[in-house]
Amino acid sequence: MSDVRHGQVRVHGILSNSHKQAARVALSFAFPFYGHYLRQITIATGGFIFTGDITHRMLTATQYIAPLMGNFDPSYSKDSTVQYLDNGEVFVVQWERVRLPGKESAGAFTFQAALHKTGAITFSYRDIPLSLDVISSAEHPVKAGLSDAFMVTTPEGERQKIYEYHRVDVDTTKITSYSAVEFTALPTCLQHESCELCLSSDQTSGCSWCNVLQRCSDGMDRHRQEWLDYACSEEVYEWLQLWGFLSNTDVRTDSSTKSHVLANTGLIAGIAAALVLLLALILLALYINYHPTAASPLYLIQRRKNYWPSLKFQKPQPGYTEVEGDGHEKDCIVEAGPC
């Protein structure tokens, strides 16, 4: 961050002097996160970036980019800062010399997250004075990695549910001073802009095309609500007809017709089995939707491999106050210290 060739470094004045605060920052480029292009993110004092559009009480639970999430308090020392830079190709956030309440004497942490225009993400750790397994998560979750989720509204429209559809956890035992982690973005269904590419690309799997939305998706992304509202999962039959799987007008001899009928019979049986499976999944999703196991108005369902257990949070999530408005921050060069 001290290399001026990377661009001008900004020290966020409020975050650098606050505890459990978060501030939104606009990006100069569209950053692809799980196939969704973000133009703004929310920087939190607790060592993570929130990528969601709606700030809620479960800020630390989903939709984050976390090099090292923890109960960091930059207000403890004037030397502690939250800095960032944006040079049009990469956006970097650095938590500089931040300390943990109750463990201030153990030393200061310095680490950063870099969001590249290509979609790659890197975590870099300069100073990690404590082994992470001795840091308590009683007051704040301690974790590192990525998470994304979608929010859907119940049919009654009375409450919203958050579904974490993907998460990557970094082994915290591997996080030490002068270590780094690099994430490479994989292709997603959302990148396909036509029905043909959506259904035939060998870079992705499980993709379906929604004619109404003109969108390619596997149904598990931030546009899940629209996917349900426009009944995109019910267009399978239309897709099969579009690609000619359910029609054939060629004139054939008796023998060729018989073989063709047998081939079509096998194909139709396979399609029928797929439709039955799809219907079962839809019914399962509806059952989960109408039979929530938690009474909280906002709760989380996490996906682990091939099942979706429901989680009810037994302890309150740490509350973050969002810094309102622009103009609260000042531009500083890192060497000059905090504003």
UniProtKB/TrEMBL annotation:
Coiled coil (residue ranges): none
Topology with respect to the bilayer: Single-pass type I membrane protein
Top-level taxon of origin: Eukaryota
InterPro entries: Plexin_repeat, PLXDC
Regions that span the bilayer: 267-288
Keywords recorded for this protein, A-Z: Glycoprotein, Membrane, Signal, Transmembrane, Transmembrane helix
Any Gene Ontology CC annotation: membrane
Subcellular location: Membrane
Membrane in keyword set: yes
Main subcellular location: membrane
Family note: Belongs to the plexin family.
Name the record gives this protein: Plexin domain containing 1
